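S.,

As promised, the guanosine-5'-triphosphate run. Input:
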Amino acid sequence: MNHLPDDLRRLEAEAIFIFREVIAECRKPVMLYSIGKDSSVMLHLARKAFHPANLPFPLLHIDTTWKFRDMIRFRDETAERLGLDLIVHINRAGLEQGINPIQHGSAAYTGVMKTDALKQALTAHGFDAAFGGARRDEELSRSKERVFSFRSKNHVWDPRNQRPELWNVFNCRIAPGESIRVFPLSNWTELDVWRYIEHENIRVVPLYFAARRPVVRRGGNLIMVDDARLPIGADEVVQDLAIRFRTLGCYPLTGAIESSAATVSDIVRELETASMSEREGRLIDFDQTGSMERKKREGYF
Amino acid sequence: MKAISDPKVKAPSGREGGAVQRDLLRLITCGSVDDGKSTMIGRLLLDCGAVFEDRRRALERDSKAVGTTGDAPDAALLLDGLQAEREQGITIDVGYHHFATPRRRFIVADTPGHVHYTRNMVTGASNADLAVLLVDASQDMLEQTQRHSFICALLGIRDIVLAVNKMDLVDFDERIFSGIRDAFAGFSSSLHFRSVMAIPTSAVLGDNVTRRSGRMAWYHGPTLLEQLEIVEIHADAAPQLRMPVQWVNRPDATFRGYAGTVASGELHPGDEVLIARTNVRTRIERIVSMDGDLARAGAGDAVTVLLADDIDVSRGDLLASPDKPPQIADAFACDLVWMSEAPLLPGRSYLLKCGNRTVGATITTLKYRVDVTNYAHLAARQLALNDIAYVNIATVEPIAVDPYQENRTTGGFILIDRLTNETVGAGMIRFGLNRAANIHHADFDVTKAARAQLNGQRPIIIWFTGLSGAGKSTIANLLERKLYALGKRTYLLDGDNVRQGLNRDLGFTEADRVENVRRVAETAKLFVDAGLITLVALISPFRAERRMARAIVAADEFIEIFVDTPVEICEQRDPKGLYRKARRGEFRNFTGIDSPYEPPEHPDLILDTATESAEHLADKVMQFLRRRGVLD
Ligand SMILES: Nc1nc2c(ncn2[C@@H]2O[C@H](COP(=O)(O)OP(=O)(O)OP(=O)(O)O)[C@@H](O)[C@H]2O)c(=O)[nH]1
Ligand SMILES: [Mg+2]
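Predicted complex:
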């Protein structure tokens, strides 16, 4: 029917089915929009699922105030261009306490500015289903998660007690106050995401493409100096290197890779021979062992 | 010896490739606990270059900390990602992983062997084309291996790789391998697999996983990876069109699209289609997509179609080929896997979700339960966690279905508990038991409304629930006298009396109690239809059945009254001496003693017999009936 290779077509159809099922059965869904490549793909798939209707749900961005400036620019442009209903939520209490990734460490900071913020927003709006762009190839605890993943009233995930999930017959029923996290990209790999971006011409944040940018080396990572808030140690040097990002988040916690991949097809080729996983550059996954599972149990995406 | 196809030659492309089109094989590993499933898949991932450098390093670190293989990396830790799994060294839930060779792309679901987590294995099996069934060469064939084989067959997996693993523990002895292979062939012959390839392996050492083993020169067949690459996967694609309508897309008054995923067959603009439920025919006008209209859509495609006629179609309807329509029925014979800690009780009402349709459903007959060790049929009155059975099921409305073996989408369903929302069962339809189209509900000229009018009253069910000795019969009796005095036509269905006749065949097990309540509820419904004010005095201990009783009549035809007497007081009164006998252990399953009572969550009325007299409480009910407008 279209120009997509079979495997991508299958993944696309599966994701569209999931979007429609949620809209048909849930009361008040929302899409968690993190501005990254997975979110871009998710947004594209959702538009396909409901075409010619508009998106039947809003997008929610949890803004920690430490995102790359390019991400925020891209977010606002995208919302404008596609006429999206975008909710931006910041944990004001955390902000007033001055919680930041530099002094408080990634674990505490993520807990307050991401996990708590997300729970605040979901509760305040009464969303009963939230789409997320997580994939099972990203991380071990994710490989175990259902497509429809249940959260108790306190947004807690209980990995030992997941509902059976057969075929594509999804049980969307929940009690008042409970919610579902839904992952339409569960069965995609990082490479699938980029191949799909290439085939479908999907726009992504420019930071994914190599360019010379100012960085410092810190604990084996390349941290981009995105604004003046990043303290530079006396023994550190800011240098311009050709870098790009495989994953985007809060800039002081996101490591870049040296790369010359300047186009989507360069990236696809680079990934085919990559030896490191995409999460290697994410400082927050490594701050404690089993940290992703723990964060997810607490309500992190 | 060097592997025949050494996937490491171009290591990283083992993960996946861009340009070449490769087909996708979805597989599961299954078998008994500790047979080496996770280790085997870990080995495959490592040998196919599907593990990134940083994860390899993490694996080495983790292996030292929690591994089971001494200093060598414990490949199972690449899969057992939950903290609890690592602590216990077992798999708890199914995990999904990707790998690829130049020939094929694979998604493998690594499932737990432990019997307690069988439902997680079922989850993995439901989407698999092939199963790698592991057996520990150093052990006898275990019950769990047989259960998994049976489940694979039931869910429609036709191709099996029998990996006889841990050959290193039996000195790579060919006789042990052939013994297990033949034993499997023996007991699985009734399961009708299309292909079974037995391979002797050592997941820990890597023998015959991706590399041919020098230690088992007597084996000449393929390695596991070779078998996975060459096995033919026929999609058993049924030719007839089936497209469940998932969502109606109505952005404005001019556009009414039906969104859904084609389950089988093809769609083209101009094709004639049948709406199965209403038996109405129409034509496909357009297939709409964000990239423009399509000339064709096939199985697996998620589409939006416009129909030529303005007809009644909604979510849960099925578009089908007019020449090969699905069966429309409200009773089915099906295979069922039970996945809940709470037992399956025939007669209890569940929700059934098939395709995009959700309807109320009841197991009407438990024909037999399967003994997984010898596939014998056993009589059963209820099902426990992980039981597999053959049952008849009835739905409250007719639905359109196909046999599961012909179509997984229109033949597979889940059962959902109405109260906990848990997914409690997975069903595979064999055939419809009736053609609902042929069963007419008999309509008569004298209607319920006419009978009610002649009686000059509003027929209603007044349902008293509470413990034995709570005072249900006493209050119901007083109430009936008061109603009679007002000239109302009534009938009192009392638990004890009903058990002497209509329900004489029932005992006090959970299953029988469910059936007891169901029959009384249906009888009460008929009496309401006859125009009577119907009083029911019945312990009716379970919420689910009381909810069912309420659901089968109109919303304003049911009043639930909770006679709320604490068990200590009932036991003191003990009018029939039953509590004393139950305490002495003379009989079992006595509500409040060794059988549960679930108090109503939202009763219409609560009567407290500890502080008020029965006479007074009956008056209270009368007042309530007046307020509800039942008595004027
Ligand atoms: N000697 C020997 N040990 C093995 C082999 N394969 C696995 N093992 C060991 O058997 C134990 C269990 O392996 P797992 O891979 O966790 O078993 P599993 O089948 O995934 O177990 P569950 O998922 O919990 O059902 C581990 O200690 C493995 O190292 C083998 O071929 N030979
Ligand atoms: Mg395992």
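Residues 257 and 465 of chain B are 48 Å apart (CA to CA). The domain at 327-435 of chain B is CATH 2.40.30.10 (Elongation Factor Tu (Ef-tu); domain 3).

- D.
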